[in-house]
Write a structure and sequence with these properties.
The structure holds 2 protein chains of 2 kinds.
Chain A: H1 2-25, E1 33-41, H2 58-62, H3 65-68, E2 73-74, E3 85-86, E4 89-94, E5 100-105, H4 119-131, E6 143-149, E7 152-157, H5 165-169, H6 176-179, E8 198-204, E9 207-212, E10 223-230, H7 234-243, E11 248-249, H8 256-259, E12 268-272, E13 278-283, H9 293-302, H10 305-312, H11 348-357, E14 361-362, E15 368-369, E16 377-383, H12 387-402, E17 406-412, H13 414-424, E18 429-433, H14 441-448, H15 470-481, H16 485-502, E19 505-510, E20 514-518, E21 522-523, H17 541-548, E22 550-551
Parallel strand pairs in A: 1-10, 1-11, 16-17, 16-18
Antiparallel strand pairs in A: 2-3, 4-5, 5-7, 6-7, 8-9, 9-10, 11-20, 12-20, 13-18, 13-19, 14-15, 21-22
Helix pairs in contact in A: 9-11, 10-12, 14-15, 15-16
Chain B: H1 2-28, H2 33-41, H3 50-56, H4 65-77, H5 92-127, H6 136-145, H7 148-162, H8 182-219, H9 222-229, H10 234-263, H11 266-271, H12 277-286, H13 290-318
Helix pairs in contact in B: 1-13, 5-8, 5-10, 5-13, 6-8, 7-8, 8-10, 9-10, 10-13, 12-13
The chains are: A alpha+beta, B mainly alpha.
Keywords (chain B): Membrane, Transmembrane, Transmembrane helix, Transport
InterPro entries (chain B): MetI-like, MetI-like_sf
Subcellular location (chain B): Cell membrane; Membrane
Chain lengths: 553, 326
């Protein structure tokens, strides 16, 4: 494993050097292949809005914003602790407590209309978000002063941003000389003047084509034409991917081995990127039976995560195996030493022993009875139609029954689940995702942060299970605001101890960025052997991936 | 004249009620667009973004409902349907302009074809009742009794997947640029054939049945007997006397079915991934996109109303008895 990380790092650095070389030498002069690379998205017909900052615009929804506009740095979500790769910024230096970032702008970059790209553009792009709350989705109310000195931009933040560093790296930069004169919220950006490898060629509601940017600082891309096709739903995209009509995209394909890969095993691939997104079985820590840590622990021991990942997740969602609930390999660097190698395993006898020790008994018909003398029953709830969640709940139910507890799976109406069940804690157990983030902070905070605790019946934003533990709350705050790695490691230790021993919620599977692609026309996509970036086309990493694609002969 | 006046007052009141209901229903629905968006992305849009999204959609200010209602009428009367959330910041009217022609074009043509063929067949069967032609009736009724989505899926399986004659989804070849070129128009027709065919097959039974029964009734009328006694040709009696009188109820139900073209095509659009207004409405409901929902509802309501007015007046013009008062 170690070796492949190094190898990936070396490639990334080499690529970075190659780009600097190219821009200094005045264009790589490479030829673009005439093969079209078609990217598919299941997002329905689009309206002609290319605004790269407004959530929901066609360019963000299909992803072509990311090949016209570029980010400051490239990060590899699989190995979040690696140093980011310089992109539009030569470097980003943070102060110790992550409240100030100094960004150095790359030299020799031009906007596609011929104007020079400067540090002022970076400062403007960040100031724009500060001044326009509608577009400030990453750092709401958190920007301080933004100033420019030569080719350096200094950005102050009002709070520590250690856990949000990636969000700054991923900000798309827009040209000041165009955006300064328009209303940035309503602007539809018909021409798309960016620094990226592609230019907008033609927009139709179902298909957008892009052509190479001849003046690109990273050298002319090998992919001659990019086409973004939009399909009405997942089925449409799945068909297009399996017929080769679309060659890159992401959709949940149940039984993907047979449905997709088997159609052309040599060229069709599905790869999972990294990240910290997981799905969690939230347990209501304030009502029976989950107000008893012993029962939560016992349930944790009988949930068959391998079966859930295989059957309910069709193998698309990787299994969680470490007891800390962290997805691997992204989380490897954060696993506390004592839990390193501690695997989650189904252990019915161990669970029964735990329950016996806590005073549980079994009645004549082997039903579990709690210390108060009542039979243990609970309901598992999720929106009807979310079939992967509901199948997972069925497997959890089967696990609970091995303990003698009676569980029922109850589908709810989606809107009811969102508005009444989840926020008010009107459930005993329910599956819900967590925010991704670039550290495990979001994962743990979303499950067990006392800072988001509200009593049952009031609207909770996170911590739906109402877990309260002051040590954890303090540790989460310490991790976020710490200025050195030692403090963070100490905090993570406290958090993971509580997570493992208290089982406030059960992490079920990880939800990484997954993508499908075909290597019939182009090779060089991120793969399992060379996971150099998040493999999806809809993110700033698209510019990096496109720089590595080579046409097949 | 009084007849027209009374009908108009009735339609104005209906329109007011429709717009009002149209305004309130989406607001009474649970859920809001920002949560729907976050849910759709399941962890990919951080919850930190919520405030910014409320501001982006203009939902950050608490405006009382009655004020919103007045504002809605104000913008509506100035011809503005608002801005969509799901496709921010595209105006709703642009989105409807983009989707409506597809639905009206495809379903409209299919409905007209279905009406014409159905009426012709119905006349024929009704005129020669008791012959082998009667067996057409149960066959066509069978197709209309099969759930439409099932019929459409079978059609896709047989004609697209197995035989490969028609594309399985979409409304035109994606690589073409929409425009009035032969290539593009041809592509639209090619992609539209299979959906149109399924609509015709599943709806033709109603037209055949209606026409056949009226022809049967009419053909025993005295004026038909007189026409035959005059020695007119069989064909002249059939078209000039029987069919002409029998077609009246067909015309009014045709006008009504025109109104339902706009609203009744969701399933077709979903099965065939056709870019029409039904699918757009479906997306709008999923995304809790109130302005787009209201825009779609409004167009559907107007279409039904206009079709009703048309049916009313056409019928009144064709049949003087409906104009009589008292």
């Amino acid at each position: 494993m170690r070796k492949s990380i190094l190898a990936a790092g070396a490639i990334v650095v080499a690529a970075g050097l190659a780009f600097t070389g190219c821009s200094a030498g005045g264009g790589g002069g490479g030829d673009s292949s005439n093969k079209v690379l078609t990217i598919g998205m299941p997002n329905g017909p689009q309206a002609p809005n290319q605004n790269p900052l407004a959530t929901g615009s066609a360019s963000l929804s299909l992803g072509y914003a990311y090949v016209v506009y570029e980010s400051l740095m490239q990060i590899n979500e699989l190995h979040p602790t690696d140093e980011p790769t310089p992109w539009l910024a030569e470097s980003v230096e943070w102060n110790d407590d992550s409240t100030q970032a100094i960004i150095t702008a790359r030299d020799g970059v031009k906007w596609s209309d011929g104007e020079d790209f400067t540090a002022d553009d970076i400062a403007y792009s960040i100031q724009l978000r500060k001044d326009t709350p509608e577009l400030n989705i990453d750092f709401p109310d958190q920007y301080g002063d933004i100033s420019v000195d030569g080719n350096q931009v200094t950005v102050d933040f009002t709070t520590s941003q250690y856990v949000n560093r990636d969000k700054l790296y991923k900000l798309l930069i827009v040209p000041e000389h165009i955006w300064a004169d328009v209303d940035p919220v309503q602007f539809t950006d018909d021409e798309m003047i960016g620094t990226g490898p592609y230019l907008l060629d033609q927009f139709t509601p179902q298909s957008v084509t892009m052509k190479p940017n001849p003046g690109y600082w990273g050298g002319q891309p090998k992919v001659g034409t990019l086409r973004y096709d939009t399909f009405n739903d997942n089925n449409g995209l799945t068909t297009a991917l399996t017929t080769g009509e679309a060659q890159w995209g992401w959709t949940f394909i149940p039984d993907y081995e047979n449905t997709f890969i088997a159609k052309d095993p040599e060229h069709f691939h599905q790869v999972a990127g990294g990240g910290f997104g997981v799905d969690v079985l939230y347990l209501n820590n304030e009502t029976k039976p989950f107000d008893d840590p012993a029962f939560r622990q016992a349930l944790n021991l009988v949930v068959d995560r391998a079966e859930i990942s295989e059957k309910a997740g069709y193998g698309v969602w990787p299994q969680i195996s470490n007891v800390t609930g962290l997805p691997q390999p992204s989380g490897d660097a954060y696993i506390a030493p004592e839990f390193d190698g501690a695997e989650l395993e189904v252990d019915v006898d161990g669970a029964k022993q735990l329950l016996t020790d806590a005073g549980y008994t079994w009645d004549a018909s082997d039903k579990l009875v709690d210390p108060d003398g009542t039979a243990v029953t609970f309901t598992l709830t999720n929106p009807a139609g979310w079939s992967d969640y509901l199948s997972a709940l069925d497997i959890i139910k089967a696990g609970a029954e091995e303990l003698g507890a009676t569980a029922t799976v109850e589908p709810a109406v989606q809107d009811t689940w969102f508005n009444d069940i989840i926020p008010f804690g009107n459930f005993q157990a329910t599956l819900h995702w967590t925010d991704g983030g670039s550290t495990p902070w979001n994962l743990y905070s979303n499950i067990m942060d006392g800072a988001s605790y509200v009593p049952l019946g009031e609207t909770a934003n996170w911590n739906f299970g109402r877990y309260q533990n002051d040590a954890v709350t303090q540790a989460l705050a310490a991790f976020k605001g710490a200025s050195d790695d030692a403090t963070r490691a100490e905090a993570m230790q406290v958090i993971q101890d509580a997570f493992v021993n208290d089982a406030p919620g059960l992490v079920i599977w990880s939800r990484p960025a997954v993508a499908q692609y075909s290597t019939v026309n182009y090779t060089g996509f991120p793969s399992e052997d060379d996971p150099y970036a998040n493999p999806q086309p809809t993110g700033p990493q698209a510019a990096l991936i496109l720089s590595k694609l080579e046409p097949t002969k | 004249m009084r007849f027209i006046g009374r009908r108009l007052v009735f339609y104005v009141i209906t329109l007011w009620a429709a717009v009002t209901i149209n305004f309130f229903i989406p607001r009474l629905m649970p859920g809001d667009p920002v949560k729907a968006l976050i849910a759709k992305n399941q962890g990919r849009i951080s919850t930190d973004a919520m405030d910014s999204l409320y501001a982006l959609f203009g939902l950050d200010e608490q405006v009382p409902l009655w004020q919103q209602y007045l504002d809605y009428w104000k913008t509506l009367l100035s011809g503005d349907l608002g801005t969509s959330f799901a496709y921010f910041p595209t105006p709703v009217s642009d989105l409807i302009n983009q989707a409506l022609p597809w639905t009206v074009g495809l379903v409209g043509v299919a409905t007209i074809i279905s009406f014409l063929i159905g009426t012709l067949i119905g006349t024929g069967i009704g005129w020669r009742r008791g012959t082998w032609a009667d067996s057409l009736l149960p066959i066509s009724t069978f197709f209309s009794a099969v759930p439409y989505f099932w019929l459409a899926l079978i059609a896709i399986f047989v004609f697209s997947v197995t035989l490969g004659w028609f594309p399985a989804s979409g409304s035109y070849d994606r690589s073409l640029v929409p425009g009035w070129s032969w290539e593009f128009v041809g592509s639209v027709i090619y992609y539209g054939t299979l959906p149109a065919l399924t609509i015709v097959i599943s709806s033709i039974a109603g037209w055949i049945l209606g026409m056949r029964n009226m022809v049967v009734t009419v053909s025993s009328e005295d004026y038909v007997t007189v026409a035959q006694a005059k020695g007119l040709s069989e064909r002249a009696v059939r078209t000039g006397y029987a069919a002409r009188n029998a077609v009246l109820p067909q015309v009014s139900s045709f006008a009504l079915s025109l109104g339902f073209i706009v609203g009744g095509t969701l399933i077709m659009e979903m099965v065939f991934s056709y870019q029409g207004i039904g699918f757009m409405l479906f997306n709008a409901v999923n995304a809790k996109d109130y302005p787009l929902m209201q825009g779609c509802f409004l167009v559907i309501t107007l279409a039904v109303l206009v079709a009703n007015i048309l049916a009313d007046f056409v019928y009144a013009a064709l049949d003087p008895r409906t104009r009589q008062e008292g």
